[in-house]
Design goal:
CATH architecture of the largest domain: Alpha-Beta Complex
Number of strands: 18
InterPro entries: ADH-like_C, ADH-like_N, ADH_Zn_CS, ER, GroES-like_sf, NAD(P)-bd_dom_sf
Largest sheet: 7 strands, mixed
CATH class of the largest domain: Alpha Beta
Cofactor: Zn(2+)
GO molecular function, one term: oxidoreductase activity
Keywords: Metal-binding, Oxidoreductase, Zinc
CATH topology of the largest domain: Quinone Oxidoreductase, Chain A, domain 1
Shape: globular
Bound molecules: zinc ion
Protein name: Zinc-dependent alcohol dehydrogenase family protein
Number of helices: 12
Low-confidence stretches: none
């Protein structure tokens, strides 16, 4: 089979690789229906994460079960399945508590920009749809496997509730999905922080009521101005930089909450500063598996369409162009079709 391999910053190649096989009785192998490039894939592309040796890429997937190990009974060959970037047995204490992305048997997916993918912990990780969904639903279900699940978790962690006010920091795919989540959870006012016109438009389509283009201290000042100096109930931090985290902390009202899901790069929080904000903080890799059944239903019923974050579709063999387009901000998120 063929798949994407990163060799060095800016050097992703589509290569012939060994066909994935069942290595453990808990594994499955899927044939990829669609996959994509994630914002976090840009860290090694830009050289901000080191690439010491060439390795496959990709952690988002939906596909068809090709083969299942002897201990996998929940899905069978031919079924269309949705998973998560973090695999989980869905039975350990952390899973039972709802923190499947911290499963004691967790493995992070790293080989999904390929024609076939081995899924560890398949029994606990994969959710099959009742029937094979129409192709028009594939992008939305793919989004559920990572960015929509992560946006949902950001809103939950920020304790978005009916009638609440929310700020979304970050207008990438996760931030935009965070807008969808905040709307679904009943937020009355959703302020999206974005400087890009196409993303502002999508944010509004997804339910944002206001757009703030300022960043940093100016962004915080603008949020305060809009909330009588108080701040909002919930902030979804979907970037992962120090500036974004500060912006999030200071946009929340005393007693408000920040859900942070941007993978932190050089984020340092001052204890005293946090102490005096009275703001609650929760973040981490989203326990997407917990949300899968609900989010799959919302997509298949047409209630939400997070697939709209894919504004570029490429054949899988042009995967490098997907990285380039996202790096140059010509695309929000690139969908790849095998
Ligand atoms: Zn577990």
């Amino acid at each position: 089979m063929r798949g994407a391999v990163i060799h060095a910053p800016g050097d992703v190649r589509f290569e012939t690789l060994d066909d994935p096989e069942i290595l453990e009785p808990t594994d499955a192998v899927i044939r990829t229906a669609v996959t994509c490039v994630c914002g976090t894939d840009l860290w090694p592309w830009r050289g901000l994460d080191a690439t010491d040796e060439a390795h496959p890429m990709g952690h988002e997937y939906v596909g068809f079960v090709e083969a299942a190990g002897s201990e996998v009974t929940s899905v069978k060959p031919g079924q269309f399945v949705v998973g998560s970037f973090a695999t989980s047995d869905n039975t350990c204490a952390n899973c039972r508590n709802g923190w499947q992305s911290n499963c004691v048997n967790r493995e992070f997916m790293t080989t999904c920009q390929a024609e076939y993918v081995r899924i560890p912990n398949a029994q606990g990780t994969l959710v099959a749809t009742e029937e094979v969904p129409g192709e028009e639903f594939w992008p939305g279900l793919l989004a559920v496997s990572d960015v929509m699940g992560t946006g949902w978790y950001a809103a939950e962690a920020a304790e978005v509730g009916p009638g609440s006010t929310a700020v979304v920091v970050g207008d990438g795919a996760v931030g935009l999905c965070g807008v969808i989540a905040a709307k679904e959870m009943g937020a009355e006012r959703i302020i999206a922080m974005s400087r890009h016109e196409s993303r502002q438009k999508l944010a509004r389509e997804f339910g944002a009521t206001d757009i703030v283009t300022e960043r940093g201290e100016d962004g915080v000042a603008r949020i305060k101005e809009m909330t009588e100096g108080i701040g909002v109930d919930s902030v979804l931090e979907c970037v992962g930089t120090g500036e974004a985290m500060r912006q999030a902390l200071h946009s929340a009202r005393p007693g408000g909450n920040v859900g942070f899901v941007g993978l932190p790069h050089e984020v340092a929080i001052d204890g005293e500063e946090l102490f005096f904000t009275h703001v609650g903080l929760r973040g981490g890799p989203a326990p997407v598996r917990r949300f899968l059944p609900d989010l799959i239903d919302r997509v298949l019923s047409g209630r939400i369409d997070p697939g709209k974050v894919f504004d570029l579709t490429l054949p899988l063999e042009q995967v490098a162009e997907g990285y380039r387009a996202m790096d140059e901000r010509r695309a929000i998120k690139a969908l790849l079709t095998p």
